[in-house]
Amino acid sequence: MNTHLMMSRRFAPLFWTQFLSAFNDNFLKNTLVFLILFTLAKDQAASLVTLAGAVFMAPFLLLSALGGEIADRFDKALIARRLKFTEIAAAAVAVVGIALSSIPVLMTALLMFGIISALFGPIKYGILPDHLERKELPKANAWIESATFAAILGGTIAGGVVSADGIGVAVFGPIMMALAVGCWLVSRYIPATGSAAPNLTIDWNILRSTWRQVADLRTDTRIWRAGLMTSWFWLVGAIVLSILPAMIKDSLGGNEIAVTAYLA
Q1: For residue 159, what pLDDT is reported?
Q2: Which of 91, 99, 179, 233 qualifies as a cystine partner to 24, CB 3.0-4.6 A?
Q3: What is the pLDDT of residues 11-52, one digit of tens each?
Q4: What is the C-alpha to C-alpha distance for residues 17 and 213, in angstroms, rounded to an integer?
Q5: Pick among 1.10.260.40, 1.20.1250.20, 1.10.3860.10, 1.10.357.10: CATH of 10-263
Q6: What is the C-alpha R_g of the chain?
Q7: What's the Cα-to-Cα distance from 194 to each of 73, 128, 197, rounded to whole Å?
Q8: 160, 30 in Cβ contact below 8 A?
């Protein structure tokens, strides 16, 4: 059974939902980076590129605990479908932003994608024990992580390639919308899970729920250290991805393809 995870409905729809979603996130983020660097706001490029990274990452800090409570309270597959349906609207906002060459509109779309991804995060991991045997979990986690990083790489390269000859809505729009709609369609095949904690009262105060989650993590030294290492990994990655594009363009004189190559 382990060798057929990617052929099984218990896992394959979740894998492709995560892959397409992460690809779309990074395709948008890097298209926005190139729009800032080479077309608009060249004099403010470094600060705006950093802001784009912060806009996308902030929801993960603030909403992950809330996302975990929602994942426990409701059917995870149902929430995944609704989030991915909402992602279609976020993609449409991004297309409008490209059509208008509007950084504020594109930042709004990026924030929407960040919120959806932050709420989906606890689902994509929490749902695995609902559908898989215990012995299958390590391999399934590895596949999910590989999907994430392959999609980050692919979205980054696609954003650079699409931007190389100027960013046009005629190319960007169909790609963005096709990815979003495809992601939603695939998510509809994720099997239902039922509610893990139907009586759970969701704390909508995101600061309080986040603080409580961190406090709970600190009670288990092993999990706390793992959390710190994971957080450090993503922090370093976010900083490098924010600094690198402007550095390649301004210090080395690189064009869109050069920036894409360094990011890759």
Answers
A1: 84
A2: 179
A3: 999 999 999 999 998 888 888 888 887 776 666 777 888 888
A4: 26
A5: 1.20.1250.20
A6: 19
A7: 9, 13, 9
A8: yes
